Amino acid sequence: MNASLRGIRLVAAHEFRMRLRTGRWKWLLGGFTLTMLAFTWILHAALDSSRGSYYNGVTIVRDHSSIGPQMFGVLMLFVLGLMLIISPALTSQSVNGDRERGTLATLQVTLLSPADIAIGKLLAGWSVGLVALGLSVPFVVWSLIEGGVGVLSALVTLAVVALLIGVICALAQALSALTSRSISSGMLSYVVTAALALGTVIVYFMALSLTAEQRTARVGADYLSEGTLHHPEDVWWLLAPNPFVVLADAAPALPPLRADNGAFVERSDDPLGSLRRTVRDATRPEDVVTCYNSGYTELDPPGSVPSCRDPFVEPPPVWPWGLGFDVLLGVGAVTVTIRRLRTPATRLGRGVRVA
Amino acid sequence: MIEDAELAEPPSHGDAGIVAENVTRSFGTVWAVRGMSLVVPYGRVTALVGPNGAGKTTLMLMLATLLSPTAGRLRIAGVDPAEDPVAVRRVTGWMPDTLGMYDQLRVREYLDFFADAHRLSKADRVRAVPSLLATVRLAEYAEAPVHVLSRGQKQRLALARALIHQPRVLLLDEPASGLDPRSRVELRDLLRRLAADGVAVLVSSHILSELAEMADRAVFVSAGQVVASRELSELAAIGAGHQVGWRIRARDPQALQTVLAERGLTGGTLTPAGLELPPMTEDEASDLLAAVVGAGVRVLAFGPVGSPLESAYLALTEEGR
Hints:
Chain A is mainly alpha-helical. Chain A has helices at 5-22, 24-48, 67-91, 96-101, 104-108, 114-145, 151-178, 182-210, 232-235, 243-250, 271-281, 319-341; strands at 213-218, 224-229, 257-258, 264-265, 289-290, 308-309. Chain B contains 12 helices and 13 strands.
């Protein structure tokens, strides 16, 4: 039996209503809001005290708005981090918890399909995550008021976080469908989330070290050196599914800054941009030279210095691969959940009771 | 020992609510149900009787379309649940022994939700929910949260949930556990009414006195197999040749005990309901009663301890050993 809009809506509304009535959500959302408030306040104060700083030894033409990008970037990375902590808990007990309480079977003997139940429950858990994300919006608006970041950037970034919350919720739900005990699925959900957020970075650097080779390489603008050369272009994809990478890479780029002398400089006030450049650089061979801050001005059009990497022409984005992989992971997780909810069941997992 | 051929009920009833043919279900190396065959006709209340671990709940789960048999065939309202579980769910109501309540909901919301889940139209839902709440005596709790209900009230709400879509086949797993005497009487009356309306009712329990009050027929199961299948009216005959406990109450207990002692019956347990005697057959019991009355003792009550179902069950399982 396939999913029906009516069935999904019924299950989602039912689950959401019960979550609202448990009371725990008030503590969860209250704690989230207070954490956001405290963090944003401290962040703003710290950035405010550093207005008018210098970049790369060159005084930057700056206006009052320049703490906006930094505030926005740090805030969004923090929001994503918080959501990665909250999201697994939203659905990691939604199937085996209902089995333990004996409520799942009462749903399965109705005309609701496994897809109705799986997707409805997922939407309910995801919705709570989106409510939490919604509570972060006033703080994001605060950073927008500081200037330097467009509304479109904020909307795209929030949308990416929203999608990533859904992926994590789907993974946690699949684990709750695969394991018999809710404590096991809860722990496994955090392990999987950590694998995405931290494991990808660790595996990337381990894999990068395996690409090392000794060769003569151009490591500066105009000299050769014997040294160890890595091939990040072979392993960059390991970083792509990382939620922080996806977020930073998908966020629209801010316009470049210009120094007092008219030269363009790489922004150091944009954490998302810095992360994006780092990841995109990983898609290119290590021996391509970056020539910015070496007398390069807009009068020297990109490419006028042979072999130089143009700092303002970035490599292709990584986020479509990463987000695509994450979304596929989420869709796969939903499929697993649906399969595990199919009845009559021919096989039961170890320790799983039907009712 | 009762022969299998004698026990097995030929599943030939085309109009039966439930037909199980050699149904088997294993969980790994454990065989919970081993070749069960039974028929549950429409318009009758059939009791599924057996001890814990006999396979009653596993059979119920298969009938409720939650588990598929490892082997054998099921037909519910003429439909094989393995082939069309949705069609079976349309006509089947199931009340598990674990009630599966949503404590955060109000009683009316709980039934509204399951009415929607069974795709009842709004008009049908508006009509069915208050009517069922009245039937299970929960109308006054319609706006109360489920978590404030007692175990017995939750049991009745679970029954209302199983009936919300007017099923033609009703599966009840231990429905009377936790019910107070009045609720048990009402449950019995409700099941009798449903059966009179043509519903095929299968009730499982290991509390035989409950089943004796509400069933027309009994299917005895043990160790995953059907041991016997009988009308309740036949059960007295099964138990007649076997020893069961008896209870006697007289106006003068001292005189009674004197007569019993003369016949070598000492050490009976004295309860408020009377003196419980050691197990004996019906013939032995009637001889004893004649002797007691003949000795001038005025007997107020005399009968077997437990129901005919218990007697028959004990007799059948004793034969099966």
